[in-house]
Amino acid sequence: MTALWTAAEAAEATGGQARGDWTASGVSIDTRTLAQGDLFVALTVARDGHDFVAQALERGAAAALVSRIPEGVPEGAPLLLVDDVQTALEALGRAARARTKARVVAITGSVGKTSTKEMMRAVLAGEGRTHAAEASYNNHWGVPLTLARMPRDTDFAVIEIGMNHPGEIAPLARMARPHVALITTVAPAHLEAFENIEGIAREKAAIFEGLEPGGTAVINGDLAVSPLLRETARRHGARIISFGEKAMNHHRLLEARVGQGATVGEARLWRTRVMLKVSAEGRHFAVNALAVLAAARALEADRARALCALAAWSPPSGRGARETVVIDPARDDESIELLDDAFNANPASLAAALEVLAAAEPFDGVGRFKRGRRIAILGDMLELGAGEAQLHADVAQAPAMAKVATVHCVGPLMAHLWEALPEAKRGRRVDTVEALLPEVSRLVDTGDVVLVKGSKSSHVSRVVDAIRKLGQRSAARETEV
């Protein structure tokens, strides 16, 4: 077992009292995924983690980080007793960051954080030992948890930082202390907590507050708020590399062609013209790949290896996974193409998803209708503030909507889109996903391409599961949209 934390190290980092002489090989906050040898952190998030300490120890946890000794925990059990568990986890994260010589990239943005993090991971994995969260751990407990899990011999770390309210990004950025800070884009998301798009931009730009001296800011240069991002980066002494499609960007996408399972194009990286490929459908993936190449350049990574890593990359499941659901294993054409983007939604990401759907090719001559269709099953976009009704209705005007045959709407907010759609495109409109699930088998057919997208708490991921159950999942092509 490789030691991540000894009892003495963890006690020193947190100012806590270690009981027992233990060594932890990992850090966990969930008994369902806890591995033997993990330090179990009894956070109080949805439930009080202290209620699960005894279970964690029974399952092989090396010790538990607690603020009190829970009932059912035997005397002499290995513990790290602290005043506050969340504060202690943050201290553990800061200590892990301080003891490593790793070069750190921090990533934020309204859209594309997770996929860009995974691109960055793929690129840096060819350069050395690379650490990044397996999931989208980007909040007040996710960032310190990711840092606390970082092995001391890490060469590169990729930290995703998100927010829901003002003032969240800066302390997490200061904890991560990145050498490179990257902002994918700024778009209407979490408007419920911000007055306008400029407020969102200022919060995203707070990531530069954590930059190490001489650090690099990688910013999207195509935005109306790009000057605000640049000015904030300059104020924090950052070297700036811009990316996008406009002529003044340092890394510029010249051309992109979206095909089946990939996006291929040409780009200019400073004065060097390159061919660019990502194994994902969507022009936005190619743009974010330029951001990754810019960050890799700042870390002195090999450009040729980076381009090869991007060509082989496909995004994480659950955030736009593209897969073929085979209805009849005896016939390759008896299948449904499924675009699963059921964990996140805002107007910008939904527009990008619809573009991918519009570019996909249905298959004719099979199924009940003998004509393949492009179908969208959309759940509510949440946290959009006072203008949320209009933002949902405006989706009807997206250019890509012209190629969508039918839109099924889930949730009270998506009802505004349903009302704005031409009658010919209106599918089912329901308030809850439970009302739609019994109808899935008749709403989709072989030959169709089906996009399922919505904010995570709209629960449209259950529609994805229902479609998968209609057949057998083939070798997956996964694409975040």
Report on the architecture of this protein:
This is UDP-N-acetylmuramoyl-tripeptide--D-alanyl-D-alanine ligase. Involved in cell wall formation. Catalyzes the final step in the synthesis of UDP-N-acetylmuramoyl-pentapeptide, the precursor of murein. Helices cover 30% and strands 23% of the residues. It has 481 residues and is of the alpha/beta class. The strands form 4 sheets. Strands 9-10-8-11-12-13-14-15-16 form a 9-stranded mixed sheet, sandwiched between helices. The chain has a 7-stranded mixed sheet with strand order 21-20-19-22-18-17-23, sandwiched between helices. It has 3 domains: 5-83, Udp-n-acetylmuramoylalanyl-d-glutamate--2,6- Diaminopimelate Ligase, Chain: A, domain 1; 100-312, UDP-N-acetylmuramoyl-L-alanine:D-glutamate ligase (3-Layer(aba) Sandwich); 321-473, Protein-Tyrosine Phosphatase, Chain A (Alpha-Beta Complex).
